[in-house]
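Reviewer comment 2.1 asked that we show a complete input and output for one of the modelled complexes. We chose the oxa(dethia)-CoA case, as it is the one discussed in the main text.
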Amino acid sequence: MPTPTRTLRRATITGLGMYVPERILTNRELETLVETSDQWIVDRTGIRERRIASEDQATSDLAIPAAQEALRVANLSATDLDLIIVATCTGDMGSFPATAAIVQDRLEAKQAAAFDVVAVCSGFVYALDVAAQYIETGRYSNVLVIGAEIMSRLLDWTDRNTCVLFGDGAGAVVVQAAEEAADEGILGSILGTDGSGVWLLNVPSGGTRSPLTPDRIADRQQYMTMRGKEVYRFAVEIMGEAAVQALGAVGLQPSDVDLFIPHQANTRIITAAAKRLDLPMEKVFVNVDRYGNTSAASVPLAMVEAWKMGKIQPGNLLVTVGFGAGLTWGANVIRWGNVTP
Ligand code: UT7
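Response of the prediction step:
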């Protein structure tokens, strides 16, 4: 594994925000759509309900309110932003432009460059590391990182293997250079990819490999397909492993962690990872029960909620872990500063 980059100056989170659509879809409602039950979904995944964007909402419509809240908390105006990164696999427009460009325009962040990161459920963890790199090198000082998804548009509502698992939402953070003397910020990150797992979780058609045709649409190939059991096995393994690696890279270990913020895909995966890390569940944040798997929005939604609930205090050590299609994974180790609502 490459040695982590020597930190020139540290990047720290100074603002956070979130947005979820109003519409709540319960397991009971899903019982009327596919052959499933509230009990099966709760027992196998821990999910009780998820949010679903309205037909007139696009991903940037979820990203914007989350971003505005994060900017307000950071006490930063959009014109001060140097860079906007949107982690998403469900952009406003099919292939281009980047959703980040749409966000940049609507925020009127006139000085900011903007691009998307596509690492699916690991997207926010990847994007946070990218933001930290730009800040550590001194290239940029004020970066907005957003994880935003409308997963419901990728779901085949006749496929019970996938349609019960996902939801929509957005979380955002402002990342800025930490004051030199402050012992806070993103201490380090690890990222990983195993592209041989591309077939385990993907949207088969709609790209250059298999453009959409009437036959492919009739075959529902524009929707997500997943080999759940294999992804589950990978997830249980990588969740703990990625956290240990990221902590080890900055000379820390799981017993140093105050709060573990895992990708919210399934409570069984989260519990297995916590066990592996020997962390009591009080040190693990879980909100998959209310939002389902929101892909790149899951880690920031969990971080924002944990912070709003007072579960993250100045000086706390946090570890985030993401995993998902690609296959991709990543983890950030963060010493929390003093962020006030
Ligand atoms: O961000 C990364 C995205 N993906 C994930 O994190 C998914 C990881 N995988 C998982 O979370 C789990 O594998 C699932 C929740 C998807 C499935 O749980 P499982 O314990 O691995 O169940 P299974 O796939 O072994 O399925 C058991 C049974 C099957 O029936 P048979 O073949 O044994 O008769 C499925 O057809 O459950 C059936 N099943 C369902 N039954 C009721 C699958 N989906 C449903 C459903 N309701 N929604």
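The chain is about 30% helix and 25% strand. We note this here for comparison with the apo prediction described in Section 3.2.
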